[in-house]
Amino acid sequence: MPRRDCVAVTEGSAHKAAPALELRALRKAYGRNVVLDGVDLVVPRGGIAAVLGPSGGGKTTLLRIVAGFEHPDAGEVLLNGRVVAGPEVNVPAEQRRVGVVPQEGALFPHLDVAGNVGFGLPRGHASRERIAEVLELVGLPGSLRARPNQLSGGQQHRVALARALAPRPQIVVLDEPFSSLDAGLRAEVREEVMLALQAAATTAIVVTHDQQEALSVADQVAVLLDGRVAQSADPETLYNLPASLAVATFVGEAVVLAGEVDSDGRIVCALGSLIIRGGTRSAGTVDVVVRPEQIDVLAPGFARALSGAGEGIAGTVVSRSFFGHDGVVRVLVGNSTVVTARLHVAHLPTPGSAVVLRVNSPVSVFSRTASLDSA
Amino acid sequence: MSELVPKVQLFAAAVPPGGAPTGPRRRRPPLLVALAGTAAAAVAVGPIWYLVDRALERGWDNTVDELWQRRTLDLVARSVGLAVTVTAACVLIGVAAAWLVVRSNLRGRGVLRILFALPLAIPSYLSAFAWVSWDRDLAGFWGATLVLTMVSYPFVYLPAVAAIRHLDPAQEEVARSLGRSRWSIAIGLTLRQVRSSITAGALLVALYVLSDFGAVAAMRYEVFTWVIYGAYRAGFNPTRAAVLALPLIVIALVLVTAEARARGRAESARIGSGAARRGAQVPLGRAAPLAWLMSLTVLGAAVGFPVYRVIHWVTTFESTEVDLGDVSRALGKTLTLAAFASVATVALAIPVGILAARFKSATSLAIERSTYVAHALPGIVVAISLVYIGVRVLRPIYLQTPLLVLGYVVLFLPLAVGAVRSSIEQSPVGLEEVARSLGTTSRRVTLRITAPLAIPGIAAGAALVFLSTMKELPVTLVLHPTGTETLATTLWRYTTISDYANAGPYALALVLFGAIPTALLSAALFARRDRAAPGLRRRD
Amino acid sequence: MNQNPLHTDRRTVRRRAVAVLVGLVLLGTACSSDSESDGTAAPGTTASPVDTEPAVAGSLTVYSGRSEDLVAPILERFTDETGIEVAFRAGGSGELAAQLLTEGDASPADVFFSQDAGALGAVEQAGLFAAMPDDLLSIVSPEFRSANGQWVGVSGRVRVLVVNPELVPEPPTTIDELLDAKWKGKLGFAPTNASWQSFVTALRLTRGEEGARTWLEGFKAQEPVAYEGNSAVRDAVDAGEIAIGLTNHYYVYEKIAAEGEDAVVARNQFLAAGDPGGLVNVAGIGVLESSSNKDLAFRLVEFLLGETGQTYFAETTYEYPLREGVPVAEGLPALDSLQPLKINLSDLSSIEATQELLSDVGLLTL
Fold first, then answer.
1. Is A122–C5 a contact, with Cβ atoms under 8 angstroms apart?
2. Is C6 within 8 Å of A120 when comparing Cβ atoms?
3. What is the ipTM of this complex?
4. pTM for the model
5. What are B430-462's pLDDT values in tens digits?
């Protein structure tokens, strides 16, 4: 096998400490349409990373470049410390050992489950064992002879994952893996796929436009906005300490208010004087991001009875939405500001009620110029 | 069913409109595919090389003198006029028939589906002779138009059926919810979307009309093939025939280029189409009897009448005894040759189809288009060019079966290339990408994924080549191994001496045994949906 | 390290591809050898039409513009008498001439048996024929063979008028009489038939381009009815659809032979001496210079010009035998008595100019 030695990516000992995937200043444009504009990203080994971004934001292009289906205009892709795509290098897809799980599964319709899963394996006894092993891993033992069209959508997905895992890839990439499944099936399949990925101890990258999905499945989430990674962090940090207003509004719901930093280092806005998370910001008018669940909605009398009652802001309920497990009310504060607050359904006030709003935890603040920069 | 039919093909959104991903390094086709494709193009272009060589034998001046005449202009006008008229009629009939059997609620459409493809089994010379011997006033432009339309509309009908079946009914439903009538949807939406399939079929029809001699000879309509045959038969002048064939090559190049451009546009306009469900049947209401009447008229003219005439000959002139042994020997030889021709043609068409569908580049397009040009050449030109090449380069197989099969390949390559190409285009490119990510090289992806998925198209292409080979006369007559007789050559032998009683059984055998692959072809076409990739849409 | 040897079955694939290719080649060879075994015309001889290694008595490859059904019986008798096998390739005379011209020196053919003189003339002009021995040439009178001694006529066909005596009590005897107003709409011809075009060629050769055009325009003005073949012309005359048809002489005799003299109304009217309408064309034969079996080929020519061959054509096809002393079929006037037009038959190869003239006048594609 002389051919593989020169090009195949192997886990050489020199790279044991290297991250599973590293992207450096990746650029890709289709004509004038710049899709990726200098993407930097590091994904450590063994974890599950999510690439989160709006539709048409270049997520899929990123995946295709990692998989080797496309070549970047500039920048580098490193797998386990080895450059696989760059100005001088283009390791073909078949030699990268990047497992791909496409959106729809894309099972080979002319092959049965065993044929699909074993596609990337050499023929032989060892492969048959491996096929059984990965099918077990994805929770589909014994369905070797089934044809793809006899499987449900969720099953097709798991077979596609098993197919990607079977040749023990360096990394598995999943493109919007659950978007085609209906809501009930989705959570279940997601759970199974994530368990299987963890069991396989493989590094995985999930591309998604669904922030909930990204936050719940990944160890690390990279937000791809306007062709760049706006922020890459663990889900809690991303949600609680967004790097920019754009990230804050894209990840999770946000109430954005104008405010000014006062001399005490607190922020003064329509919801009162609030504590800034992570220290003070520059002077002048800034954007304040408050999450709906940070806002307590209290009845006026109940608010007065609490200690420190003076901090509450009075408002009037404009409308409410009921979601079952919780609810949302929109409250008019002052003359024209409407804020959204999330609360338990037992306390959902009716429109027209007078309420008192109080922010229960520190908030994020972004200077306007900085926000513009990051946007 | 709903979760079995997801929506968008793998990574489709990342491919920019218009097809191939751009980038500094485009994926190269496997060497084997590239070589085989180039070989196919070389085979197809062989006759053209010969013609140019011959035409220039006496110098440019001679060529220019031969062509720079008022008569040439007349011939171009007549050939193009006939091709345009027949092609338009074929599109009309082929698409209407396809729509009727796929989307209308016409009773008996299950039978009509198969019947509509049957004219493929009728040779043009047979149909023409059946008509003109019945009423000699049919001779001329309209007679030629009638016969050529009736024998070649299936080349539009078959791809139109495939395309209409693949349409997404959701789009029609949206159009209806927007207040469009069913009829205006059928014309404005359905037909527009199947345009590229129809154009591909129309190209084959136009090229065929340019090349056909049987029908125009019987109908005495003087077009290019007529004067080219005249140059051989009456002028004993192969050089002049070569010169006269040059305008046909130019016309063919224009047509092929135009079709390729139309195809490119149509594809970029059809991103994200594709179907999960079958469209609802459109009720014809009071139009149903009219639809039946039109269907029967077409089938009667295309199949019924020629078959009736053949049976009439057999029963009217029963003076001689027909040796069924001879008929079956000729049949056996015909089927053997047709089998060889379809295997060889498809073997060369697969790499060309893969190149055209998957490795789009100026070179791959040139290779694909070059296989079409010879389709516009009259059979006798291809035959004589293979004589030229045969005695000089392929002497050991001259007047042997392999050279004859090579002639069929040259003639019928585009039939198989078109079928293979569209079949590969319809299978999602994502499958191949997944296969590559699993460590499979391009060449093996071709063997393990692309080719198996194209099997329906390959089978359809093989069936078309098989049928066309069965009917083929001029190349068979010139290149057959000495002593070999096929149904077509025997039919020719008897008709030249006006022995219709003896010719009849051969004509019947030709039609009957041509009807079998035709029926299989249309049955396969309608079964194809059920073999479609689960959870995948076709790409274009 | 090599847990995932992704390319191990590459060799398997290649092996399979090779197997398929080999299979195809074998099939191809099988087919060609198959075709040899059921060659009906000449079993055993077609095995190597390329290298014409003579068998015991030798073998000949004949390119024939004459139909196999017509020629096969007499060729079988030739084989019986001489032991020389004959491989037969049928085709149109023009197409075969084109094939011979394209093959040139490399032709596998030994003999070209043509339906008409024009095709022989074309092959002669290309210098592909071997000179005929004088003893063969001298069998046939000079007007029915090549002036250069390259080919020789085997049988003759006379252009005639087929008339319906019920409609035409006094038939015309020259082509100019056909232009009389009383025949308007009552004439029939086969515009694509080679013999008709040979007649027009003879008209061109005798009267010049303008003379021929004048006659053709007059003929066109008569609104003649076009048929797809000579048999159809004859049948139309017989049925009374038209009064007079322009055909070859043997069509009426064929019909009489098939249906009986009483059942057929139509009769031949031979044209006046020297009239271009009464052209005598021949089917003829030439031996190719490139043949390595010329001696055997000349024996075939000799056989066809012999008593047996000539009698066969006279009786089977009602054509005129060209050998002195062989009787014509019953009911035919002697060739001498017709005093036909004298032209060089090799010149009939200029049929293409004829077709252009016909097309120009509007008689080719009525």
1. yes
2. yes
3. 0.82
4. 0.78
5. 888 888 888 888 888 888 888 888 887 888 889
